[in-house]
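ENTRY TYPE: protein
WANTED: fold as tokens:
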Amino acid sequence: MQIEVSRDVFRLAQVFTISRGSRTEAKVLTVRVSDGTHQGWGECVPYARYEETLESVEAEIAGLPETFDRAQLTDLLSAGAARNAVDCALWDLEAKRAGKRVWELAGLPVPGPEITAYTLSLDTPEKMQAQAAVNAHRPLLKIKLGTPDDMPRLEAVRAGAPDAEIIVDANEGWSAAVYADLAPHLVRLGVALVEQPLPAGQDDALIGMDRPVPVCADESCHDRSSLPALKGKYDVVNIKLDKTGGLTEALALREQALAEGYRVMVGCMVGSSLAMAPATLLAQGAMVTDLDGPLLLAEDRDNPLTFDDAGVHPPKADLWG
């Protein structure tokens, strides 16, 4: 089996800012796996928050043996971006070999479109209100917050998009006291979900705290091994392929999380349609789908995913799976 890794850069449609910083482009790794006859591919986004770089992820993939299969991959690579790209490439390869779609191989129902959130970049209240107004036709908006001055931003977005459902991503930027103070206002403004209000590792303060708006674990939830530490703190888990290390573990995490009473959000890093394609299968029936990465780009892969009023559609075979 041959594995090739390349770096790709996609320009963003506009500067994208969260509480940790800003970016103007998405830097991704594309992995191609070939058996000499068929080739599968996948994409990952190394994330500095998890101490990943393009170089470190490339090195992980370069260290793989010449022969292995998807079932062995979990033992060869830990959860993270490297395993994600290889796992998704192997799923694509298996589908091409079998002449079937990935959802058939995985025993999943035929997927359909899912309404996806559209993310508003962190900015001044005035500019966020303008962003919200431009996107007020979208049914679900996601707001990046996590600063000491979040209430004016949230009020501004609600004024700009009075009818849209809103979810908030604090990106670990709040303290327990800040969250407790903001919670009644989140209810008043119709916020449907709050992602990761407290830093991962410092979220025990959520135990026993009133959660009038469902709280979602993002940075605190990577794979199935994360679940025991989430009890009593979170209502929802955000499953991202770059955290789970691919679709294989993501499907297992979804099943276990649902069995333990959590609701599921399916999210993404900022990447191309190739990165989102496997996640559309995972997102079927999720409480929240947040796969807007391609909508934030100024350019995308050939044969990109379709986004329309019905939501984000599953990939066509000429893209992935």
